[in-house]
Amino acid sequence: MIEFKNIHKSFEDVHAVDDVSLRIEEGELFGFIGPDGAGKTTLFRMLNSLLIPDEGQINLFGLDPVKEYKKVRQIIGYMPGKFSLYYDLSIEENLQFFATVFGTTIEENYHLIEDIYKQIEPFKKRPAGKLSGGMKQKLALSCALIHKPRLLLLDEPTTGVDAVSRREFWEMLQKLKEKGITIVVSTPYMDEAGLCDRVALMQNGKIHAVAPPSEIVSQFSDPLYTIKVKNNYKSLQALRQWEFCENVYPFGETLHYLDKRNNVSADVIEAYLSSQQLTFDKVEMIQPDIEDCFIALTHNVG
Ligand SMILES: Nc1ncnc2c1ncn2[C@@H]1O[C@H](COP(=O)(O)OP(=O)(O)OP(=O)(O)O)[C@@H](O)[C@H]1O
């Protein structure tokens, strides 16, 4: 079990992590979801003993990362946001290096990385600096796993990686979870939230919700509308000025709209848009996804 109790960390006047308390069970695939600057990296760096909290305690499988940092570093496989690889070393040399640092050998834990490593093994003599984003990511994951960690800590592992490699990466994480490794991952991509057992929605150093993704979505009870308009910016401004508007935001190529009244129909919204001389395709009630929930939870929160 991993437990954060009232964790605070500031950098001068920035509250990077602001009173975070939560518990992650052993064997979970747990995600921290939040935009840049939410505090995810700072939280991860305290968990793996690279930063000391200003206040609060962390319990990592019974260890205190401040007092027992040497033991903590042995049981964590950390993949930082910026790639951790040595670019002048080849694939094979990078892996060898990480195995040696942790006092193990590639052979000893090869079974753990086999599925991932065999995809890059044909290029094992190539320097890490000459690999594609997806290949670097697979190598970094292999390096983080080579000492058979109890916790795999992955800080934005899919940022800057193409869509196919992102999907493959999450499939690899599911397989590692089946092997009993606890996985804590951060991501700014809301669509990846649905692939975690539970997620924490984080912004401005605070956790706004912790639950399985399906539960977060099911708690969203307000009617939500999608509006396809010709001019998103003009329509956004007009809707924001409408007295009944609870919230409106761009969502892909459409707008998502919430009304202060509970029983408003799409026709009423269409009538308002027409009265403002705005051209639209249609207004439809839709089911929210995790991104809508994130926006709703953090709406009006400083
Ligand atoms: N060493 C530091 N010195 C000063 N400010 C910092 C430092 N590290 C982080 N911060 C600030 O703390 C806040 C949280 O940053 P953090 O890196 O933890 O967020 P994040 O969610 O990981 O986002 P990102 O993807 O941008 O790293 C940001 O405002 C950041 O500028």
Structure characterization notes:
There is one protein chain. This protein has 302 residues and is of the alpha/beta class. It has two domains: 2-217, Rossmann fold, CATH 3.40.50; 220-298, Alpha-Beta Plaits. The chain has ten helices and 13 strands. Strands 5-6-7-3-8-9 form a six-stranded mixed beta sheet, with helices on both faces. Strands 11-12-10-13 form a four-stranded antiparallel beta sheet, covered by helices on one side. The protein has a three-stranded antiparallel beta sheet with strand order 2-1-4, covered by helices on one side. A hairpin with a 2-residue loop joins strand 1 and strand 2 (14-24). Helix 3 packs parallel to helix 5 (133-145). It is elongated and about 70 Å long. The two termini are 31 Å apart. The mean pLDDT is 92. Bound molecules: adenosine-5'-triphosphate. It holds the Pfam family ABC_tran. Keywords: ATP-binding, Nodulation, Nucleotide-binding, Transport. GO terms for molecular function: ATP binding. Residues 2-229 form the ABC transporter domain. It comes from Carboxylicivirga linearis.
In short:
It contains ten helices and 13 strands.
Q: How confident is the prediction overall: mean pLDDT?
A: 92
Query: What percentage of the residues does DSSP assign to strands (E)?
Result: 25-35%
Q: Helix coverage percent of residues?
A: 25-40%
Structural class: alpha/beta
Question: Which CATH architecture of the largest domain is right?
Answer: 3-Layer(aba) Sandwich
CATH superfamily of the largest domain: P-loop containing nucleotide triphosphate hydrolases
CATH topology of the largest domain: Rossmann fold
Which small molecules are bound? adenosine-5'-triphosphate
Number of helices: 10
Determine and state the CATH class of the largest domain: Alpha Beta
Envelope shape: elongated
Protein name: ABC transporter ATP-binding protein
GO molecular function: ATP binding
Domain ABC transporter: 2-229
Pfam family, one: ABC_tran
